[in-house]
Amino acid sequence: MNAPIEISFRHFEPSDRIRAKIDELAGSLDRLDRAVISGHVIIDGKNKIGHKSVVSIHVELAYPGGLAIGKRSVDLAFHTAAEQVSTHFRKLAPQDVKQLAHQPEHGRIARLDGAVRNGFIEMHDGATLFFSEAVLKGRFDALAEGDEVLAVASDEEGPYGPQASAVKAIGPLG
Fold first, then answer.
1. Could you say which DSSP state residue 50 is in?
2. What is the DSSP letter of 51?
3. Based on the number of CB atoms within 10 Å of its own CB, is 156 exposed (0-12), middle (13-18) or buried (19 or more)?
4. H-helix or E-strand containing 77?
5. Residues 6 or more apart from 151 whose CB is under 8 A from it?
């Protein structure tokens, strides 16, 4: 945390037990690291039921873009405020981008064999895919080495190694 948490006791003298609990919970906010700019805890003993003081807790945690507030019991107040801050930053964090399987990728024709009507595609990542006329969308005779294509890699390997399950010519590489 960027700044220490300010702790205020109102309308009663806190016991060592309460001070220790507040310190422990304030220390647990360190996991939020730089997310919390400042914090303020107010422990109020003004309310009474009979001869017993009922302590109310108010926790405020300021973070860039907002203010998290927790109330009620000591544990619940800290937990609620900290969870609000965590949720805010979880929503802002970039999500892992899942690579969609079976999406066409750019490549170029590395070799063609007109006699058996197949060839090899060199992909942008350096991998080489085998393809045959059966998976080609378009005319095989219109292809030339160096032409750019979109190819979908198959899950299964063929006798010539990794193979394409679909190939579409885009045109000459220019």
1. T
2. T
3. exposed
4. helix 74-92
5. 104, 105, 107, 121, 123, 129, 131, 164, 166, 167, 168
Q: Which of 32, 40, 35 is nearest to 57 (CA)?
A: 40
The answer to whether position 97 is within a domain reads no
Secondary structure letter of residue 14 according to DSSP: P
Pick from 29-33, 46-50, 54-58, 76-80 the range whose average pLDDT is largest.
76-80
pLDDT digits (tens, 9 = 90+) for 48-77: 666 766 677 888 888 887 888 888 777 788
Asked if residues 40 and 70 have their Cβ atoms less than 8 Å apart, the reply is: no
How many structural domains does the chain have?
2
Q: Are residues 126 and 86 in the same domain?
A: no
- Looking at the fold, whether 115 and 85 belong to one and the same domain comes out as no
SS3 at position 169: strand
- In order, the DSSP letters of 100-148 are PTT--EEEEEEEEETTTTEEEEEETTS-EEEEEGGGEES-GGG--TT-E
**What is the reported pTM?**
0.47
Q: Would residue 84 count as lying in a domain?
A: yes
User: Which tokens belong to 3?
Assistant: 């700044």
Q: Which helix (H) or strand (E) holds 38?
A: strand 38-49
Burial of 25 (0-12, 13-18, 19+ CB in 10 A): buried
